[in-house]
Amino acid sequence: MIVVRVMAGGRDLAIVPSMETPDETTTPATGIAAQDWTAASADPQYRAAVVDLLGALAYGELAAFERLAEDAKLAPTLEDKAELAAMAAAEFHHFERLRDRLTEIGESANKAMQPFGAALDEFHRQTAPSDWLEGLVKAYVGDSIASDFYREVAARLDTDTRTLVLAVLDDTGHATFAVEKVRAAIEAEPRVGGRLALWARRLMGEALSQAQRVVADRDALSTMLVGGVADGFDLAEVGRMFSRITEAHTKRMAALGLAA
């Protein structure tokens, strides 16, 4: 069982993922989620939270571009190298959209990204792949965990910001490419599966810790996550959120042919 701790309002909140089945019912948007940016940003605390969120996402996309370009060097074939290069280019395009949006709303993209550099750089330092297959698993599993977290938060955002966030979280081709390559490698050499399963579990823990740090270090974001701004999560919903993220991770592991 994974326990996630979130700082909110000066309190250290331990959140144990709920074992309940996620509610698939779609309910009409209300509150901030039903407003556009112009209306929602009139609340200065909400505006600050969104600037933080876009800054964190922008730095994450820039780091993903750098990492994928670097991982392309490990590719065993020119075709594989080209595939990763294309993914890297897509990540950079996502970064450009976030940077341009921050500029559009009168914010400095560099200033918005700066608070998140240390945590994200440390995550990538701790999870540097040792070979091609570990890089693929990280691109598929690690990035997807972060994307799941941001999608959960996006449900609470104004319509304009939500549309942008969901667009930049679109799969850049990681999923199909990674699944095909990893499954083929395991089929060719079954013992590889055990090593990659351990690696994926480590990525899960590190990714959730990263999400915790990103939120805990910024008051506006933590307040938005645990109530207080927009239509924030209550503690029970935070637990269910992390349960959904964990469940999605288990499904991805199965798609790779790995044990969660």
TrEMBL record:
CDD domains according to UniProt: Ferritin_like
Domain of life (superkingdom): Bacteria
InterPro entries the UniProt entry points to: Ferritin-like, Ferritin-like_SF, Ferritin_actino
Ferritin-like domain sequence ranges: 44-228
Protein name: tRNA-(MS[2]IO[6]A)-hydroxylase (MiaE)-like
